[in-house]
Design brief:
The complex is a heterodimer of chains A (138) and B (100). With 138 residues, chain A is mostly helical. Chain A has one domain. Helix content of chain A is 64%, strand content 0%. Chain A has 4 helices and no strands. In chain A, helix 2 runs parallel beside helix 4. The longest helix of chain A has 47 residues. The relative contact order of chain A is 0.15. Chain B is an all-alpha fold and 100 residues long. In chain B, 76% of the residues lie in helices and 0% in strands. Chain B contains 6 helices and no strands. In chain B, helix 5 runs antiparallel to helix 6. The longest helix of chain B is centred in the last third of the chain and has 27 residues. The termini of chain B are far apart. The chains are: A mainly alpha (138), B mainly alpha (100). The interface between A and B is medium-sized, with 24 and 27 residues.
Chain lengths: 138, 100
């Protein structure tokens, strides 16, 4: 009966292989997205929220801003988790997280532009209304 | 199919921005474009809102990527997403210039 730790043994001298900083940073180590690698937490959620933030960029911009901020917060939490132990998570899900973060930033800026446009619109309308009121009172 | 189209035509949601300000928003015309797309009138759909078709492609590509995880899929999602938002803004500006 073979012990389950047999995979962790070094093939050359049989010494159990421990994760050293060099092996953690080795990209070959985690380029395989097969079994054994976890997905980065929040990666799918960040991607979906980032895509959704463009759907709602015209609802006064506020929904898009909320979704974008939530996606960015989730993305930063996931990135922190990934940086603690990069060898544990698959590289594909980390790319998903990065893509979701980019989408969230684009959606957030679109929402910000929309809300800026509305503020400018309100200022213009407010100035007109104030002018008309002044004309009536004086 | 025809019943779905007539149901959608009778239950169009009014854009809150257009109702309040009277100005088109970037997403205005998407429901009409979707109905035109259901009818198969692609050029009419592009005229009403050009960003609907890239948006649908983006959403379906994202769903496919989450299920099958394509290689380099995340980068393509970013490219598709930026293209969609670019088309959205350009379409909005062109519509504003043409209608005023």
């Amino acid at each position: 009966m073979t012990p389950p730790e047999i995979n962790n043994l070094d093939p050359q001298d049989g010494i159990p292989k421990f994760e050293t900083p060099s092996s953690i940073n080795n990209p070959i180590n985690n380029s395989n997205n097969g079994n054994g690698y976890q997905t980065v937490p929040n990666s799918i959620g960040v991607l979906v929220l980032g895509i959704l933030s463009i759907c709602f960029c015209w609802c006064y911009g506020i929904v898009s801003i909320i979704l974008g901020i939530v996606a960015l917060v989730l993305a930063s939490a996931g990135e922190k988790e990934y940086n603690l132990n990069p060898a544990r998570y698959s590289i594909a899900s980390y790319k998903n997280l990065k893509a979701g973060k980019t989408c969230a930033i684009i959606g957030l800026s679109l929402g910000g532009l929309t809300i800026l446009g509305f503020i400018v619109y309100f200022i213009i309308v407010g100035t007109f209304a104030a002018g008309i009121l002044n004309a009536f009172t004086h | 199919m025809e019943t779905i189209i007539t149901f959608l035509e009778q239950h169009l949601l009014t854009c809150s921005v257009k109702g309040l300000f009277g100005v088109d928003c970037p997403g205005c015309g998407m429901q009409r474009a979707f109905i035109a797309l259901l009818r198969g009138e692609i050029i009419e759909s592009l005229k009403l809102n050009a960003s609907l078709i890239p948006f649908i492609i983006t959403v379906f590509f994202t769903i496919g990527h989450l299920i099958f995880s394509f290689s380099n899929g995340a980068r393509y999602i970013v490219i598709l997403f930026s293209t969609t938002s670019l088309i959205l803004i350009v379409n909005f500006v062109v519509k504003l210039i043409l209608h005023s």
